[in-house]
Amino acid sequence: MVGSNRKSGIGVVGDVPWGTHLCQFYQTKEDLIEILVPYFKAGLENNEFCMWITSEPLQVEEAKAALKKAVINLDDYIKKGQIEILDYSEWYTRAGKFDADEVLQGWVDKEKLALEKGLDGLRLTGNTFWLEPKDWKDFYDYEAMVDRVIGQYHMLAICTYSLELCGINDVLDVVSNHQFAILRRAGEWEIIVSAGRKRSIDALKKAEQNFHSSLDESPLGIRIVSAEGELLYANQAILDIYGYSSLEELAAVPTKQRYTPESYAEHQKRKEKRKRGEFVPSNYEISIVRKDGEVRHLNVFRREVIWNGETQFQVLHEDITERKRAEEALRESREKYKELVDFLPQTVFEIDETGNFVFANRHGLETSGNTQQDIDKGLNALQLFIPEDRNRVRENMRRILAGERLGGTEYTAMRKDGSTFPALVYSVPITRGGKPAGLRGLVIDITERERAEEALRESEERYRTLFDSSLDGIAFHNMEGRILDANQAYLDMLGYTMGEIKKLTYLQLTPKKWYKTEARIVEDEITERGYSDEYEKEYIRKDGTVFPVSLRRWLIRDEKGKPVGIWGITRDITEHKQLQDEKAEWERKAHVASRLASIGQMAAGVAHEINNPLTAVIGYARLLQTKKDIPGDIRQDIDIIHEEAQRVANIVRKLLAFARQQKPERKLVNINDTISTTLDLRAYSLKTNNIEVTTQLDPDLPMTLADASQLQQVFLNIILNAETEMKLAHGKGKFLVKTAQVNNNIRISFEDNGPGIAEENLDRIFEPFFTTREVGQGTGLGLSLCHGIVAEHGGRIYAQSKLGKGATFVVELPIIL
Fold this sequence. Notes:
By secondary structure, this protein is α+β, with helices and mostly antiparallel strands. It has 6 domains: 5-204, 3-Layer(aba) Sandwich (Rossmann fold); 218-324, PAS domain (Beta-Lactamase); 344-445, 2-Layer Sandwich (Beta-Lactamase), CATH 3.30.450.20; 449-572, PAS domain (Beta-Lactamase, 2-Layer Sandwich), CATH 3.30.450; 579-659, Helix Hairpins (Orthogonal Bundle); 667-814, Heat Shock Protein 90 (2-Layer Sandwich). Helix content is 44%, strand content 26%. A 7-stranded mixed β-sheet has the order 5-4-6-7-3-8-9, with helices on both faces. Helix 21 packs antiparallel against helix 22 (590-625) and helix 24 (671-688) packs parallel to helix 25 (708-730). It is elongated.
C-alpha cells in the first residue's frame, strides 16, 4: 500500500512493507555491523521499537558501540525504552533451552507493547551463531512459522547466519524460510530472492498498479503537487476539467492564467497563510479558466500523501459548475416567486408546524390588516379566524401535516380590526428531510363568489326551459367545481337526482386520470378565451361505471366581468365510441371491410355534427312554444319547425343504427389451411424480395371456432411487416412459420431474421398509432388491429426479439369446438 513502506536503511534492500522477513549470511562481525547498524538507525528514526539479539562473533557491548557511532543520542533511545540490545541467552535460551512458541510469543508481545506506547511497530534481528546441530530442526520450524505469521504484524525481521556454520542444505533451508536473503559477493552485497519475496514484489507492483489505475480512472480530478506548488501528477479527469491534452501542456500554463482573477487572489492568500503556519481549511471552492476560456467552478480538497516515498500534497477537484448554476437559478427562482406572489390577488402564506407565520404576500397583509412586523413578532394563523372556527382550523392543520388531503375548506376569516369575511383556504404540507415542517397555502376571499351564486340562482327560470328540453346534458358549476344546477338529461345520464348531484363537485364525477386535462382546459382555454373547444373525456355514473362524453364549456361572468361559474353541454358518446371501435374492427378486414368502416365513420361524423345544431333547434322551438303572446300563424310555423327537427333526430338515430358493425362470424377453421392461403397471397412478393419461406405446420393440429377472414387479416399483417423489415434491412431474408398444439391452445409463430425490435419498444408495438417507421411509411394501426382481433377470439399475441437478431411474433388461440 502506498505510504506504508518502511525505510530499511540497507541500500541493497531499499524500502520494504511491514511483515518483511529476510536473512543475512555473514563471514565476519564487520559484515554484521555493516548491515545491522544502518538497519537499526533507520528504525529509531522511523519511530520503531528495536530489538538486537546478539551472539558471537559480535557481543552486546560491541554492537552498542558500533551503533552509537551512527546514532549519537543512542543513550536517550535506550533510556526511553525504544531499543534493547540483548545476548541470545537472554532471549532465545533464557529458560535453559530453545522454545519456539515462547520466542515467537515474545516477539508478538513486544510488538503489542510498542504500539501501545505510540511507536509504529517492531524492528528486530537475531544472530544464530549459538545454534547447535540438535537445535537446527526446531529453529528451522520456528523460522517457517515466523515467515507465515509475520505478515499479520507491524514487524521487520533480519535473521543472521554464519556461512562458516551453514552447509549448502542449510543455506537452502534458510532461504526457503525468508522472503529474501542478502550476502556479500565480490565485495558487494547482493539479494537472493526467494519465492516468497517474489510474491511480495509482485503483490506490491500489483498494488501500485491498482493505486495508479484508481487515480487515472477516478471521476474526480486528482493532482499531486509539491509544497512549492510543482505539478507532479494529474489524472485524466483533471485534464478534462481544464481542457488540456497532457500533463506537460497543463504544467506549462502559469498558475495565474488557470484561475479567474478573484479566485487567484484567494489562492495567493492561502499560500501566504501556509507560509506563516496559519490554519487553512483543507476544503474550499475555486473558479478556473479552461483552455477554451470557459469558467468552471470546482470544490477542492487538499491533504498530505506519501508520493514516491516523499511527503507531497494530493488535491482533489470536483466540478460543481452545474450545482452552482442550479443554486443561482434557485435563488433567482425564489426572488421571482416572491415578486410573483406579491402581485397575486389572493393571499399566499407559509406557516411553521406551530402555526406561526413564516411568510405572507402583500395581498395577505393588506387583506388582514397585519404587517411584516406582526409576522416577525410571532403572528399565529389562529388569530386570523373567528374563535368559533379555531378548533376546526387547528384540527385541519393537524390532518394536513399528517398527510391528509382536504382540498378547499371554508372558514370565516377575521381581520386585525375585528371585521370578518368568508374565506376559502387551500393548503399543503411543507416537508424537510422527509418530515412535515409547516404548511403552504392560498386564501381566497369568497364574498363575491357567494354573491355570484345568488345571481345565478336568480337566473334559474330564464334557463330552465332550455335545460329541460335539451337532448344533451347541461350543467352549471361554480368556480370551485360545486354543481349548482343540471337538467334532466344530465341527471339521467349520470343516474343521480337533483338533490344528490348538488352535493357533488365536478371532479367527483371525473376519473382522476382526467384531472390534469381538466385543469389545462380551464386555465388555457376557458379562463383565457371564455369558452372551450369541444373535447372528449369520461364521466363516472352513480353505479360506478365509466363512460365517454363529448363536452363544450362556457365561462359565466357577473356584471363586473368577474368569473362566477362554468356551464357546459355534455353528450354521451358511448354509441359514437362504439361506432369508432366498430370502424376500427372493420378496417382489419381487406378492402371491403375498409369501405364499410368508412361508411361507419361518415355516419358517426354526420350524426355527431347534426346533433349539435339540432339540439339548439329543438330547444329553442320548445322555448318558443311555451310563450303565450305568439300569434297563431307563427305558432303553427314553430310547431312545424319542432316536428321536422324531431324527424331529423329520428333520421340521425337510423343512420347510427345503419353504421353499427355486426359481430364476427365464427366457424370451425383449419388454422394450417388459413396460414397456407395467406402465404399464397404473398408468395409472389416474398419470392421477388428474395425471402425464403419455411413452414413447420403440425399435421395433427385440431380445428377451432374462429372468424377465418379476421385471422387471415392478422396473419397477413404480420407477414407484411416481416417482409418489409427484412427487405429494408438486408434486401432478402428467411421466414419461418410454425404451428403446434400447446395444452389447450393453438400456437402460431412467425420468425424472421430482420433487424429485430428494441427492448424498450416490445411493450409498445401493439399500441394504436405507435410506429418506428418514417412519417408516411406506417400508420401504427396494423399490430393494434391484430391485437384486438386476437383478444376478441380469447387469445393473445406477443413478440420476442433482440435488436439485430430478428423477431418472432406469436399468436395463441384457444381450441374451441
